[in-house]
């Protein structure tokens, strides 16, 4: 645990010094602020549009931070050759990855809180009101980021930053579309059995990231139950653990030259 804690702290400090992080955070704040102007130009449903745009900004820029900063954490260790020192120490490679994951998770939590605070100020200024469902949507967006962080670490454990970015973005898109694809395959009368089988397999082998999407409910101020919050959190923890396990096995056998 001491080794993991040391890697976690170091990863947190490193992530907080990353220029990419602050660039993305700046644009996120800008988009949240711009949502106020955009919402004012809409005819009707002003508050709903404002909530939609704010939650979308938190989700989109959170995903970008998780992907690009997450991939960079492992790549920088390899690029600076510090990975050789790390793997030669009494530190298991799985501990290294878990520490990186926890460090970035803490960084993401801080960034999500910052964006949520800015979003709350905009809502108060616009007199749009704060509903508990907004907190639920933001929390589930954060748990989605944990899964995406684990995906980023998985692909960065064996590929270059460019490939890892492409794989992670692709995997994330599939995760967001798999449930819709399955529903289309099951309900579509023209869908073939092979297509249905493919959709079922895809749904089972990738995390269903739509599980974490309650933004529509939040924008309409529809409450999200504690049971669903617990399910979503548990789902994120389970998938993150599974992905980190696979990443650890791959990273264990990786040779550094």
Characterization of the model:
By secondary structure, the protein is an all-alpha fold. It has one domain. The protein is 81% helix and 0% strand. The protein contains ten helices and no strands. The chain has helices at residues 2-16, 19-40, 46-79, 82-88, 93-125, 132-156, 161-187, 193-205, 215-219, 226-252. Helix 5 (93-125) packs antiparallel against helix 10 (226-252) and helix 6 (132-156) packs across helix 7. The longest helix is centred in the first third of the chain and has 34 residues, at 46-79. It is globular. 39% of the residues are buried. The mean pLDDT is 86.
List strands and helices in order, with pairings.
Layout: H1 2-16, H2 19-40, H3 46-79, H4 82-88, H5 93-125, H6 132-156, H7 161-187, H8 193-205, H9 215-219, H10 226-252
**Structural class by secondary-structure content:** mainly alpha
State the separation between the terminal residues, measured CA to CA: 28 Å
Low-confidence stretches: none
Give the number of DSSP strands: 0
State mean pLDDT (0 to 100 scale): 86
Task: Note the beta-strand portion.
Answer: under 5%
- How would a crystallographer describe the biggest sheet? none
How many distinct helices?
A: 10
Shape category: globular
Estimate percent helicity: over 70%
| Order of helical and strand elements | HHHHHHHHHH
Number of structurally distinct domains: 1
Query: Rg to the nearest angstrom?
Result: 20 Å
